[in-house]
Amino acid sequence: MSTATGVLNVRPIVEHVDTGLGSADRRVIAEILSDITVQTYRTLLRSQVVHWNVVGPLFQPIHVLTEQHYNDLFSAIDVIAERIRALGHTVPTGKAAVGLDKAMSLGAKLTAKSMVEELVEDHETLARLVREGAAQAEDLKDFVTHDLLTERLAFHEKAVWMLRAIVAD
Fold first, then answer.
1. More confidently predicted of 1 and 111
2. What span, in angstroms and rounded, lies between the C-alpha atoms of 58 and 75?
3. pTM over 0.85
4. Which of 79, 87, 118, 169 would bridge 26 by S-S if both were Cys, CB 3.0 to 4.6 A apart?
C-alpha cells in the first residue's frame, strides 16, 4: 500500500479518553448529542425550506429570521459534533442520521403561518431534547456539555418566542 493510500484509509474510531469522565458516561453523552445533532439538522433544513418558500405580507421578516436560524443551527452542529469527537466517539452519518429522511416534508398547505407553526414545533422539540441532555450532562459531571447545551437551550427558547410572535393572532 502506498503512503497516500494508507493516509486516505484512516478511519475515525472510538478513542480512549481520560479526562475524568468514564467510558460509559462519555458514551451516554455522545448518544444524547447525536440525537440533538439529528434534530438540529432536521430543523436547519426545514428552516431553509421555509426561507425559500415563504410568501405574503410577512415574507421579509420570516425570510430574514429563518436565515439567521439556519446559520446559527449550522454553526451549532459543528460545535456539537466536535464535542462528540472530544468525548472519543464518532458523529452520526447517513441520511437518517442527519435527519434527511424527514427534514424536507412540511405540511401540505405551505402557508406562511403553517410553516412557521411547524418550525415552532421543531424548536420546542429541540428545547426539550437539549434540556434533558443538559440535565443528564450535569448529573454525569460533564460541565462542558452542560454549558454547551445551556447555550443551545437559550437559542431554541428564543426562537420559539420569536416564531410564536410572528403567528400570533
1. 111
2. 26
3. yes
4. 87
